[in-house]
Amino acid sequence: MCADVIVAEDDEKQAELVRRYLEREGHAVRIVGDGLAALDAVRHQEPDLLVLDVMMPRADGLDVVRVLRSENRELPVLMLTARSTEDDLLLGLDLGADDYMTKPYSPRELMARVRTLLRRTRRTASPEPVAEDPVLRVGALVVDPARHQVSVGGAAVECTPGEFRILAALAAGPDRVFSRQRLLEELHGFDRYISARTVDVHVMNLRKKIERAPRRPERLLTVFGVGYKLTDPAKAARRA
């Protein structure tokens, strides 16, 4: 699974360490040292993966992710940072990072995360029909895992990667209650410092996108003391 990878890291020793491990697995690697150079490299090279440090000159990693997602670029982004507070980690995920590791990290774990991200991206981009990824429908809500698309009543809904994975899991089991821990597992190994509150942040943002009244949700419901479930409001009204 050879890939074109951009490593955006202003610490030369860290960048060379990441390069060696990536090249050992057969990937082509380009290193840039600041946020603006990372944006320029992504736009011109269109890589398969961006390994992105948060604290960089000219533009930090969070700004880079914000710009890339505003341009509708869907390349996977693995963020690296010395910050370990939960709020910082949640912000990175909320902006659209696919995974997040805090320094110091194990190079072997980093390579495992890279392989996971690349496998998922290749599977999603495959032109062949994927039997295990049918279109999921819960009333007017439609989730298409193969195309990474969401709509409500025919209107497209833009989701971050984390939001999409949680919504797809819920849509695959309508009316089934998912615990926060179970939904956190759907985020496939995000940094160990992130707590179940990550799920609450994604659910709050999803409600803003798929509910008519986010503070009075009809689709994405809280089951107090247990977790969340996705339901069809029209069907629930008929049962009532």
TrEMBL record:
Pfam families assigned: Response_reg, Trans_reg_C
Xref: InterPro entries: CheY-like_superfamily, OmpR/PhoB-type_DNA-bd, Sig_transdc_resp-reg_C-effctor, Sig_transdc_resp-reg_receiver, WalR-like, WH-like_DNA-bd_sf
Classification via SUPFAM superfamilies: C-terminal effector domain of the bipartite response regulators (SSF46894), CheY-like (SSF52172)
Ranges where the OmpR/PhoB-type domain occurs: 133-232
Key words, A-Z: DNA-binding, Phosphoprotein, Transcription, Transcription regulation, Two-component regulatory system
Segments of the chain annotated as binding DNA: 133-232
Response regulatory domain residues: 4-118
Modified sites of kind 4-aspartylphosphate: 53
Highest taxon of the lineage: Bacteria
Name of the protein in question: Response regulator transcription factor
Lineage of the species this protein comes from: Bacteria, Bacillati, Actinomycetota, Actinomycetes, Kitasatosporales
